[in-house]
Amino acid sequence: MNPKGQSWQNCDEDIMKMPINNVLNICRVLQLLEQRTTTVHNKDEGAAWGLSHLPLEFRPLIQKAADAYHSTKSVSVQDRKTGGIAWDKADLLAFRDFARLALDKYGIPL
């Protein structure tokens, strides 16, 4: 839950505020569920898994998040959460909605 009492799956703006972390964390959660393990993988492992296991349509977004996560580009404090990168809201929301459906498949309440 975020401070407003909304879960990440239902909050349109949260994925836009921190797209790097949200995209990579979604990959990590889906990896955990698909592998049926208790091992929580790091963001690099989640990104690598997402790039090889999630639908092709999301792979450019995952790669963009992974690249931004490793970027050494200097960005302002204000732009740290986005990496100073322009993110497509439709792409982020489509990925969020995909994750919602995947969680539903595992019976995780939304």
| Global mean pLDDT | 87
Count every helix, treating DSSP H or I runs of 4 or more residues as helices: 5
- The tally of beta strands, per DSSP, is 0
Q: How far apart, in Å, are the first and last alpha carbons?
A: 11 Å
Sheet/helix structural class: mainly alpha
Helix-strand pattern, N to C?
A: HHHHH
Q: Portion of residues in helices? A: 55-70%
**Estimated radius of gyration:** 14 Å
Question: What is the molecular shape?
Answer: globular
Low-confidence segments: 1-6
List the quaternary state of the chains. Answer: single chain
The portion of residues forming beta strands comes to under 5%
The main sheet comes to: none
Count of individual domains:
1
Could you walk me through the main structural features you see in this protein, from its secondary elements to its overall organization?
The protein is an all-alpha fold. The chain has one domain. It has five helices and no strands. Helix 2 (about 20-35) packs across helix 3, helix 2 (about 20-35) packs across helix 4 and helix 3 packs antiparallel against helix 4 (about 60-70). It is globular and about 40 Å long. The relative contact order is 0.18. Residues about 1-5 have low confidence and may be disordered.
